[in-house]
Amino acid sequence: MTNIGVFDSGLGGLSVLNELVKKKNANYYYLGDSLRAPYGSRPQKEIIKFSDEIVNFLEKYNIDRYIIACNTISTLATDFLQEKYQKPFYPITKAGLENALLFKGDYLVLGTQATVDSHFYKNSIEKLSSSKVYEIAAPNLVKLIENGDIEGPLMDKELKSYLEIANQKQIPNIILGCTHYPIIRNSIEKNLNYNANIINPASNIGKKINFEDSDDISVNIFMTKVNEENKKLIDKILDCNYYLEEKEI
């Protein structure tokens, strides 16, 4: 039986986990660090330290390979984790780039501050195509999502501001540069004044991760903070049975 570790700064990576469990059978071990979310505005040194603590916790489950279900960790800590643990780590940004390059036209990257500051999507897409890539950091969205405010006046106010350039320029492609953002896809579409192509890096991820399909499946979710709000969100995101436990790392 294959053991797959999936981790994120909070609940957002569950959107990645949900795509995986629909495509591949395995023992899944997910850790979301909701207690210290969001990561996007933290310095790189701290993000690497937190990522190391997450993987160190998951290692007790004999993980065969890891999916970094967080754009911020993917852009800042992948090399460190691969070198230290000598195991396969698949960053969600790789899936995001592969998905984005399937489309034509300009792009808007809506992401965390750290992901935008890394310019990963901008540099990669502009190097490989003639498209222009705009970048907007949306630092307030993760906290709202983690608190369960995925729709309504608070979310609409933030999105109207963050999506202003998209509405002005009618940018055809919008990359969700944070795995929390698929959770608010409906709110994003509501606050656009045109029909945009919304690119979710987690889509088709089950086809991109190469590991042997097992006979059975188990989904184990560990969160560093569990409350009623994130329990409701977990049920909203996942289409499978799961075990949930609060853990200190």
TrEMBL record:
Claim: Isomerase is one of the keywords in the record: yes
GO molecular function: glutamate racemase activity
Pathway: Cell wall biogenesis; peptidoglycan biosynthesis
Family classification: Belongs to the aspartate/glutamate racemases family.
InterPro entries assigned: Asp/Glu/hydantoin_racemase, Asp/Glu_race, Asp/Glu_racemase_AS_2, Glu_race
Lineage: Bacteria, Bacillati, Bacillota, Tissierellia, Tissierellales
Protein name: Glutamate racemase
Residues annotated as catalytic: 70 (proton donor/acceptor), 178 (proton donor/acceptor)
Keyword Cell wall biogenesis/degradation: yes
Role of this protein: Provides the (R)-glutamate required for cell wall biosynthesis.
Gene source species: Anaerococcus octavius
Gene name in the database record: murI
PROSITE patterns reported for this sequence: ASP_GLU_RACEMASE_2 (PS00924)
Reaction(s) catalysed (UniProt annotation): L-glutamate = D-glutamate
